[in-house]
Design brief:
CATH class of one domain: Alpha Beta
Helix content: 25-40%
Number of helices: 18
Strand content: 15-25%
Structural class: alpha+beta
Largest sheet: 9 strands, mixed
Distance between the termini: 43 Å
């Protein structure tokens, strides 16, 4: 009992001490605390002010200040708390590592040509490599299509680039030269550039992807074609390089690493610490949802649906788990009440636990303790999608979707003794049976979460089906599938907290059933 009293005293002292620290009066007025300070590098000032104006128009109570920060102040701002920055990677000092950053948009640079180019089919089939682009954009000598495509044609290659610092910075990095050495005509205004390309079938140009997309159908502007990049320089567009059929495929290819990294940059929201104030989180959540529509009109690209969902989940999780301590006018009185309430509750709890332990000790001597299976026992790694067929899906860098069964299913079935899988090369449709789990003669059919072609099966499961029980999210994966409609299908998937809520409902449903 003496130990119990000592424990309560220590806990009470700890609560009193920590509460007094956290409840110190703020150095700022309430008006300042309610405001949001946003800073940005010069290139992003327009999109930052667009976002703020649009957000304030639908949230009149919001108070947001925006400042344009010169290059030499970026490092200082990255280390200061109480603000949110909007910045691209080329403005982040190489030696600096931010404490928190989150992508909210993307700046993608693409090579373009006229859809009337007489060598269009050959270019789409072969692509143009980095070295070949460098030969025409950074070479002082005049270049022709014959030297570029090795087809003997003498037509001159005319080079154009949008007159934008960010675009030329990315282009120079890609060509491994400096901006001053870039060859070609700088064109002011995207309409002027696209007009030059359309009217010159032998022209090459560089601009932002968002500038050549129609907002209505999210497809490429009429008369303009994107030039495929031959990344490995083997004079053909391989399967992993073939991401140029439409805008959705290209944007997905950029996200999963199939596009040269130096030709795109994420727009980051950065801060010294994870934003946790409700007004800051609300503003960032709006940027990731309704605010995305303003990116295209400012020549930037939106994030993919799966990216937005994941980042929204991260923001939501952090804002739910971190509670800010508010300033009070009577700190000492409220602290004493809290301490005594906690101490009383602890004392009651300990007495009840002591009585319960004596009863349980008598039972334990005769029987073994049984611990029921609960939803809290289910593991659900972050970053992967879950389907209501009790399967999970993860898009890998090469573009294939890795598929497996979730942790709940293997707990329900018990030890899996065998599996029946489809073969590599077969086509499956979302919702169709594509796997059978066998447990001592009993069979359970599992339905596919995606549509597409099976590119690889986990052959280890044929000899060791226990991997589905012991390692469902790693060694126990089932298929790699080339998805037909990934961006649409992931809209029905669950992730993070939404998956946990669904699992809780599944447990309730099972309890009602039994």
């Amino acid at each position: 009992m003496k130990k119990t009293i000592v424990l309560i005293s220590i806990l009470a002292s700890f609560v009193l001490f920590s509460t007094n620290i956290n409840a110190k009066p703020s150095l700022h007025s309430s008006n300042v605390e309610d405001s949001i300070y946003v800073w940005t590098n010069p290139d992003l000032f327009d999109i930052a002010t667009t976002w703020v104006s649009a957000y304030e128009s639908i949230n009149p109570e919001a108070k947001i200040r925006v400042s344009k920060i010169p290059d030499n102040m970026v490092s200082d701002m990255l280390n200061k708390s109480g603000n949110i920055g909007l910045i691209t990677k080329n403005y982040i000092p190489a030696t600096h590592k931010t404490n928190w950053q989150m992508a909210v948009g993307r700046d993608i640079i693409v090579p373009v040509m006229s859809s009337e180019n007489p060598f269009l089919e050959e270019i789409i089939r072969k692509g143009i490599s980095q070295e070949e682009f460098a030969s025409v954009f950074s070479n002082t000598k005049e270049s022709n299509w014959g030297s570029l495509l090795n087809n003997g044609q003498s037509n001159h290659v005319n080079c154009y680039c949008i007159n934008n610092e960010s675009t030329k910075f990315h282009l120079a990095e890609f060509l491994q030269t400096d901006v001053q050495s870039l060859k070609g005509k700088d064109i002011d205004g995207i309409e002027s550039l696209l007009g030059k390309i359309r009217n010159d079938k032998y022209a090459l140009g560089y601009c932002r992807l968002a500038d050549i997309l129609n907002y209505e159908d999210h497809d490429f502007t009429k008369g303009i074609s994107i030039i495929p990049i031959d990344i490995n320089g083997n004079n053909k567009i391989d399967h992993f390089e073939n991401i140029y059929k439409n805008a959705n495929e290209l944007e997905r290819g950029v996200w999963i690493g199939k596009y040269p990294k130096v030709l795109f940059s994420n727009i980051y929201s950065v801060a010294a610490d994870q934003p946790i104030k409700s007004n800051e989180v609300a503003f960032l959540e709006w940027i990731l949802t309704d605010g995305q529509q303003y990116l295209n009109s400012n020549s930037y690209s939106e994030l993919l649906a799966s990216e937005k969902q994941s980042k929204l989940q991260d923001l939501s999780n952090n804002s739910m788990t971190i509670v800010e301590v508010q300033k009070t006018t009577d700190t000492k009185t409220s602290t004493i009440i809290i301490v005594f309430a906690i101490a009383g509750a602890l004392l009651t709890l300990i007495v009840l636990m002591y009585r319960k332990s004596r009863t349980q000790k008598l039972i334990k001597d005769e029987t073994n303790t049984y611990q029921p299976f609960k939803e809290s026992h289910i593991t659900a790694p972050k970053g992967i999608f879950f389907d209501k067929s009790h399967t999970w899906a993860f898009m890998e860098k090469e573009g294939y979707v890795r598929i497996g069964v979730d942790d709940l299913l293997q707990h329900v079935t018990g030890q899996i003794t065998n599996v029946k899988m489809r073969t590599s090369g077969e086509t499956v449709k979302k919702g169709d049976p594509f796997l059978s789990l066998i447990q001592n003669g009993k069979q359970l059919d599992i339905h596919s979460p995606v549509s597409g072609k099976i590119k690889e099966i986990n052959s280890k499961l044929n000899f060791n089906s226990n991997l589905l029980n012991s390692s469902p999210y790693s060694d126990g994966w089932i298929y790699k599938i080339e998805s037909d409609n990934w961006l649409t299908e992931i809209k029905t998937f669950l992730m993070g907290e939404s998956y946990k809520k669904w699992i809780k409902n599944e447990f309730t449903r099972l309890k009602d059933l039994f």
